[in-house]
Amino acid sequence: MRILVVSDTHGDRHTLHRVILSQPKAEVVIHLGDGCDDIEDERFVHPEKMFLQVRGNCDWGSALPPLGEIQLENRKIFYTHGNLYNVKYTLDEIKLAARLQKATILLFGHTHVPYTEYDNGLYVMNPGSLRGADASYGIVDLTPQGVVTNVIRANQGGREPEIR
Known about the structure:
The protein is of the alpha/beta class. The chain has helices at about 15-20, 40-45, 90-100, and strands spanning about 1-5, 25-30, 50-55, 65-70, 75-80, 105, 115-120, 120-125, 135-145, 145-155, 160. The model is unreliable at about 160-164 (pLDDT under 50).
C-alpha cells in the first residue's frame, strides 16, 4: 500500500493537485495541516482514495482534530502537524507520543523541512512543505517486507526519491 503524505500547502492547491495526480498508486492521502481546506476539492476528484487530515497552527477555526492515528497493513500510524510537540526544537517529545500510542510510523509537518529517519523501531517522516520553490512531499510504502519512506521534491517532476 502506498500513502501520499503532504503538509503545509498554505493555499497551493495547484501543486497539491499535481502531486496527487503524479502518485496514482497512492491509496491514502494524509494532509498534516496548514492548508486543511486545500484538500477538500481533491476528495471529490479522487473518490477512490482515502483522505485523512489534521489541523495545523495556521488552520484557524478548523474543527479537524490536532492528531490522528490509523492502522494500515498491520502498522499503526500516528500523525499530527507537530506544533503541539515543539518539533522546531526537538523530536524527543513527538517520538515519545508516537511510542506511547504504540505507533510504528510517525508523520508530522510544521517545520517545512523534509526529514526521514528510522529510530529504534519507529519510522519518522516530515514531508516538508508543499508550497514554494523547494516544495516536497512524502511517500510511505507498506509492503510485506517492511516500510519504505521517501521524500520527493515536487518541482522535479515527482520522480526521483531523495535519500535523507
